Amino acid sequence: MKEQERRLIYLSFFFMCLFAVTDSTRGVFLPFIKTAYQVTDTQLGLISSVSSLSFMISMPIAAMIAERSGYRILIRSGFVVQIIAVMVLRFATNYPMILFFYILLSIGGAVVLYAINTIIPQLPITNHAYYMNWTHCMYGIVASSITVTLGWVLRTGIDWKIMYYVTVVAMLIGLAVNRKSEYPWIPKSESKGGNHALLKQSILYTYIVIFGFFVSAESGMIVWSIHYYDQAFQIDTGFAAILAAGFLINISIGRVIGSRYLEKYDHFHMVQFTQAVAILMVTLGLSLGRNGVWLLPLSGLFFSINYPTMLISIGYVIKNQTQRAVGYITGFTGSIVFVMHIIIGRISDHFGIRIAMYIIPFSLVVCLGIFTLVQKGIIREKID
Prior knowledge:
The protein is an all-alpha fold. The chain has helices at about 5-25, 25-35, 40-70, 70-90, 95-120, 130-155, 160-180, 200-235, 235-260, 265-285, 295-300, 300-305, 305-315, 320-350, 355, 360-375.
C-alpha cells in the first residue's frame, strides 16, 4: 500500500470520528427535548424523520459537488453547515427552531459522510470491506464514548444545549485538517444511456429499500433505545445511556472481529448470517421486557458489519456509475427512514414504546429478505 493511500484511509478514520461526535447526541437528548418543549412522541419521531429526509436530499447533492469541485470543498461545506446549525441552537426557543437545527445538522453530516463512504472504495487496494468496517468501527468507538459521557454529564444538571457548543471545536479541527489534505479526484460519471440511465435500474431502488430498512433498524436502536428504557422501565438516564452506548461499543467490537472473517468468507453470506442473528436477539430482547434489555446492546455485535459490507457490495452488483449509485442509495434511504421513524412515534403515542420498538426487527426482516434476492441474482443490474 502506498503512503498516499494509507493517509487517505487514516483520514477517513479521523473524519468518521468527528461525524460520530455530533451524530451520537441525537438519542441522548430526546427525553430533554420532550420535557423542555412539551412535545409528543410523534413530534420526536418527526425530528428523526425530517433529519432523515434532509439526509436523503443532501447525499445526491454531495455526489454532484464531489464530482464538480472535489472532496476538499465538499467536506468544508459539511462542517460549515454544522457550525451554522449550532448557532441556530444557541437561539432556539421553540420546537420549530429545534427541528430546523436538526435539519442543518443532518445536512452537514450527510455531506461529510458521503465523502467518508466514497474515498476508500475508489482506492487501488485489496479488501475494501476490511477497511470500510474499520472506518465505521471508529464511529462506534467515539459514539459510545460520547453517549456514556453525555449521560454522566447531564446528570450533573448542565444544560443539554451546552454539549453542542463543545462539538464546534471538533468541527473547527476538521476544517483545519481538511485544508491540508490531498484527496483523489472523482471522475465524472458517464453512461451510454445518459446521466439518467442509472435511475432506470431496478437494482438501484432495490438497494435503496435494503439500506432504508436496515438504517431504520439501526438508527431506531440508537435514537429510541434510551427513550424505551426510560418510558417502559423507568431506568435511570445515566444507566440507560450506558445501555445505549453498549450497543455502539458492540458494533465496534463486531466490526473489528467481523472484518477478519470478511477476508475469508463471502460478503453476502456474512451479511445474511449476522442479520438473522440480530433479528433473533432484538425480538427476544423486546419480548422478555426488562429481563431482556441486555440483549439489545448485545445485538450490536451482529448489526456491526452490515452497513459497511453492504456498501461495498454495491460495487459488486452495480458496475455502471458506482460512485453516483452510492450517493443515490445512501441518500434516498432517508425516504424510508423518514416514514419508519414517524411510524415508531405514532405507534408509541397510541400503543406505547414497547410495541413501537418491534418496528426494528420488522425492518431487519424486510432488509434481509430483499438482500437475499440480490444475493441470488433474482434482482440484478441490467446491462444494455
